[in-house]
Design brief:
It is built from 6 helices and 3 strands. It is an alpha+beta fold. Strands 1-2-3 form a 3-stranded antiparallel beta sheet. A hairpin with a 2-residue loop joins strand 1 and strand 2. The two termini are 23 Å apart. Pfam families: Phage_TAC_7. InterPro entries: Phage_tail_E/E. This is Phage tail assembly protein.
């Protein structure tokens, strides 16, 4: 890898980070972006996978606080702008895909 490649790879935006259209204001704290990480099976406990696949708000309100940085509360999730909720749900739904499915999807959109 060349020095230019190294700089470009470190400056690449994290595909799991989303810049909120409507920031979350929590007291004196304002959250403008949220990063999600892939959950493990235990972090999906108590939630139906079909509800998560369907981006059910109640299901997302249980899981997103477990995998978000900064940590969102369930109240934060319920108060998200609908456009922001759908975008975070889209990032989350990517975690439920196998590598083969992701590669196929990327090849179709490339």
């Amino acid at each position: 890898m060349t020095q230019t490649d190294e700089r470009n790879s470190t400056n690449a935006p994290d595909p799991n980070t989303y810049e909120l259209d409507t920031p979350i204001v929590r007291g004196s704290q304002t959250i403008t972006s949220v990063t999600l990480r892939k959950p493990n099976a235990g972090e999906l406990r108590g939630v139906s996978l079909s509800d998560l696949v369907n981006l059910d708000v109640a299901a997302l309100s249980k899981v997103l606080p477990r995998i978000s940085t900064p940590t969102l509360t369930d109240r934060d999730v319920f108060n998200l702008d609908p456009a922001d909720l759908v975008q975070l749900g889209g990032i989350f739904s990517g975690f439920l895909m196998t590598k083969a499915v992701k590669q196929k999807m990327e090849s179709l959109t490339a």
